[in-house]
User: Which sequence fits this backbone?
């Protein structure tokens, strides 16, 4: 199967899977929020672009879904100190009410791949998420997915995704990967000269992840599939 056929099949499968949930959610009149968090130190670059692809695909599943992209570039989270967590929160305190809000059904974390793993900014963000565990596991039951952007097809994206998964599992989140037909750990994209647009396969994984996150969030929140 060539890439054109592959992408056409992906879009067809996503459309068919969302028909039932679209009708039911519209009847319920509920809004489901899905938030993307870009942990790239560079604002508006390929990690943000990959998250937008993912969020757009999630939004397309159902009119009840609203999306938001938060970029951590330029923030000063600092190193998490469990002995004095508030002293090192930086801008993280502003994220606590946003991400823990009951309307937020899913969180998608995006990170570039540095030396085969997440960025230091992503690690700082995940460490500061200790605040949610201290709030009676405020992220428990929310759907989680990961977008990873590397310099090559085998640039460490899958390992990066799995290490972020491990942190989200500690929050009692419900982890999903990209949906069929790619159906693996999450969105794996290639950055070529600050551009992901030519990475057809990577874009398909981001779309599949967004669709899958939306499907699971709808099922958990509204009881549709």
Assistant:
């Amino acid at each position: 199967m060539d890439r054109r056929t592959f992408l056409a099949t992906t879009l067809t499968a996503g459309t068919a899977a969302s028909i039932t949930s679209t009708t039911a959610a519209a009847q319920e009149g509920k809004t489901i929020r899905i938030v993307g968090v870009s942990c790239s130190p560079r604002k508006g670059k390929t990690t943000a672009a990959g998250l937008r692809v993912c969020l757009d695909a999630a939004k397309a599943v159902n009119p009840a879904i609203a999306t938001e992209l938060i970029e951590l570039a330029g923030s000063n989270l600092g190193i998490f100190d469990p002995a004095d967590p508030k002293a090192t929160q930086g801008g993280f305190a502003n994220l606590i009410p946003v991400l823990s809000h009951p309307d937020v059904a899913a969180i998608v974390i995006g990170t570039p791949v540095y030396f085969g793993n997440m960025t230091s900014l992503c690690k700082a963000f995940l460490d500061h998420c200790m605040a949610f565990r201290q709030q009676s596991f405020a992220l428990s039951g929310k759907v989680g997915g990961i977008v990873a952007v590397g310099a090559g097809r085998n640039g460490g994206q899958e390992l990066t995704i799995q290490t972020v998964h491990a942190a989200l599992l500690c929050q009692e989140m419900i982890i999903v990967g990209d949906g069929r037909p790619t159906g693996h750990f999450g969105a794996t994209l290639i950055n070529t000269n600050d551009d992901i647009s030519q990475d057809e396969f990577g874009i398909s994984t981001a779309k599949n992840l967004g669709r899958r996150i939306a499907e699971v969030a709808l099922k958990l929140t509204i009881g549709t599939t």
User: Anything to note?
Assistant: The first strand starts at residue 32 and ends at 38. The chain has a mean pLDDT of 88. Strands lie at 32-38, 65-71, 104-112, 143-150, 174-175, 187-190. Helices lie at 3-28, 46-61, 95-99, 120-128, 130-134, 157-169, 200-221.
